[in-house]
């Protein structure tokens, strides 16, 4: 027997309640009060909870009013809705009074006490004893915590809970309104994803509180019975959607994006299946799916934090908190761990308020990071534009100087013609590189390396041409580019690397495969002379090879090194090769029908003769040409094997 000497919380009724399960859902109050057919058993848990069972459940306890002046009591159930519930009071004289009888088709107004949670009024005189029978059936969990309140204590409790609930709703609505303001300003979908997710969460809590039934659809109990499925599914769907939008998983984490989509699709499928499947089972499955959904959102945040922690730090913290709330629900509904409804609701409310704030902070923090990134990008863009302007100015100056030298040195002597010829290909490559850089088709560091080589080569040739014109340098000295004009001595490897960088874009534009194999050895050479020789040979190979590949390699040859260029062009016989060494000798045309000037091999041969370099064909091939230039040296530097 329970002594009613004041308010009794649900925990204080442990050990005082008995239960009876009615799988046929046919027993009446008269049946269960028959002592011979009773079969009631003690409830072994703190709160009556029999899992998800499709049966009518009967509870019984005996109470005695031990107060001196309290007659009006309230049986306060910590549940907002059951598909059916009735409360019967059996007096000492055997009279049966039904104080609560609300079924599946009864609207909110049918409740005897207008309160979001179920409340049964009970009159019990001081000193009177009565049996309380409670019968109910639930489409969800059978958990039913309840306690006893006096009329005055219940009014106080109701006022406090109502104030707390609406304070919570206001705290949830505030970040939602701020997010709507953010959307109005920035027009970014992440704000709408945030708003939809947290409005669904707020609606779910209001439904759990019973407020939705009281204010939103009070005359539609059948929908209220079903509402936890679509509202719960909405949270399961909108949470991964928010994670997808916020983290941009489609671009940054495609595998995680597919997993989030899978959770959303499963939630939609379960919601649709509620039309024809057992809703009790579906409600339990949705509890588990919500845990999976929140876990996946938290995991996606952890993965993103590996590469962009500052941008997602608040996002991760928020979902870890939300994961705790989802775990509490799962432990209660799946593992049977006894957790009071009040504790569960308060924990979920607290976590969701904190999480809503953290999610809002995560959006604000992300936009702050994006703002800093934009500022950095603007600075980099300014630097890039400034660099491009300088490149264009430098190229324009070279083009102008080239035009001037062409006009002044035309027909003056063969060395001048050679210089003008050698300028054509590097200038073309330089234009190509700058155009690709401006069109964002090349990465800046690689393009700049190649352009610096081209600029240095062209500027040196321009300087040589100017020295010849202004200081009357002899044609032989300009052609040979001896020590006076080529003061710097470099390794051959540096020259071949520069030539490779210079001509690689030209070969790629033509669709040719240009392979480069440097040697592990190196020798010192006159760089401009070596570069003019190799550039002319490689330029000819690219010009006359319409498809296929070109092999550019360096091999050890005695104490020196031999630069070899093998192409898949039309080729030359040994006799044709010797003839091509003569000036203005053209053996064949290019595919475009352009003859060229017939100076390439002649220039190579004349430049090579002065320092003693040897230019030869390597083999008499049927298709293609193999040319080698041997650079002798008495000093060899070994850089590798």
Automatic annotation (TrEMBL):
SMART domains reported for this sequence: HATPase_c
Coiled coil (UniProt feature): 372-408
InterPro entries: 2C_sensor_his_kinase, 7TMR_DISM_rcpt_extracell_dom1, 7TMR_DISM_rcpt_extracell_dom2, HATPase_C_sf, HATPase_dom, His_kinase_dom
Gene Ontology, cellular component aspect: plasma membrane
SUPFAM superfamilies: ATPase domain of HSP90 chaperone/DNA topoisomerase II/histidine kinase
Matches recorded under Pfam families: 7TMR-DISM_7TM, 7TMR-DISMED2, HATPase_c
Name by which UniProt lists this protein: histidine kinase
Lineage summary: Bacteria, Pseudomonadati, Pseudomonadota, Alphaproteobacteria, Rhodobacterales
